Amino acid sequence: MLLSKGYEVHGMIRRASTFNTGRIDHLYHDPHGNGDKVNLYLHYGDLSAPQSLTDLVYNVQPDEVYHLAAQSHVRVSFDMPEYTGDVTGLGTTRILEALRRSGSKARFYQASTSELFGSANPPQNEDTPFLPRSPYAAAKMYAYWMVRNYREAYNMFATNGILFNHESPRRGETFVTRKITRAAASILAGRQKNLYLGNLDSKRDWGYAPEYVEAMYMLMQIDQPGDFVIGTGEAHTVREFLDEAFGYINLDWHDYVHIDPRYFRPTEVDYLLADPTRANQMGWKPRVTFRGLVRIMMDADLEALGLPSPGEGKRIINEQFGDWHCWEHQIMTMDR
To answer: Which domain of life is it from (predicted)?
Structure first.
């Protein structure tokens, strides 16, 4: 979306022995090739290496910083609590400190999370107390308060976007929504027999990721920074997600889904539901429904396996975002 608005975009990637840029390959052009010039530049760095962050800030001189990086898998955070705290919590502080020390006037967006609310009673808004229930949530809570502290202590434009679950066909395959849609398509194709999940009664406020990108951008353009809840105001259980995904292709999920205790969290978050009144008053409202979201994801995973799809997700994309066949480019075409 930023590229479509004429931005010069600089991204930080971790050094690895294999290429890990698959999600942006359709945007990136080899500088030695003959393709059209795209103002996208990649830099090696790491949230656990403060010098790399300081160097980036000095060399790039950014106007806006969108901090979306983290160890963001909640269940994994129980297995790697120290690493999660270092990257997800202290990583945010390192960026803020690099901006402060450089004297940068850049606007800073922190990808906060609904997991902060944990066991707090729904619906949750900007005034709801935080009751984190995982190392990931605790690390994000530290990051949230550091953003507020830097905003108030140093008069920095530093904003927390408290986003509830946002999904799309790009969602990682180990996250429950994508795990379900990918498995449903694989089962239909005869490539998979069973799907193993944990707690089916958890309720989440699930929305469509490109619309949440619009919200991030909106929060960076307002006059005063702050803390904002972004969500649909509607929650559904994992069971309901299974109903929608498998029902869409006329399968009964009860024939394939099994419960595996290893996928239960040591401390569970039962019910997350956004009260996005403040964001709604600013002009942001979601357009894709829960059912539409599931169908968009299902159509993409069916198409990825060469299977015909009912096409409802395609229709939604065509109406709201442009050409379905460019769904990997959705963020680039939102302004249509």
So the answer is: Bacteria
Interatomic CA distance for residues 56 and 224, integer angstroms: 25
* Each residue's pLDDT tens digit, 93-111: 999 999 999 999 999 999 9
pTM of the model: 0.90
Q: Which helix (H) or strand (E) holds 246?
A: helix 238-248
Query: What domains lie within the chain, and their CATH numbers?
Result: 173-212+234-272+290-335 (3.90.25.10)
Return d(Cα 84, Cα 140) in angstroms, integer.
9
Q: Please give the sequence-ordered ranges of beta strands (E in DSSP) within the chain, or none if there are none.
A: 9-13, 40-44, 64-67, 107-113, 158-163, 166-167, 195-197, 203-204, 207-208, 227-230, 236-237, 257-259
Instruction: From 291, 332, 333, select the one nearest 312 (Cα to Cα).
Output: 291
C-beta of residue 225 within 8 angstroms of C-beta of residue 109: no
d(CA 220, CA 64): 8
Q: Which residues are catalytic?
A: 113, 115, 136
Specify the residue for token string 């396996």: 305
- DSSP state letter for 222: S
pLDDT score, position 330: 42
Tell me whether strands 207-208 and 227-230 are parallel, antiparallel or unpaired.
unpaired
Rounded Cα distance, 158 and 169, in Å = 30
Which residue shows structure tokens 């590229």?
A: 3
- Token duo for residue 301: 């995973």
Tokens of 270: 């039962």
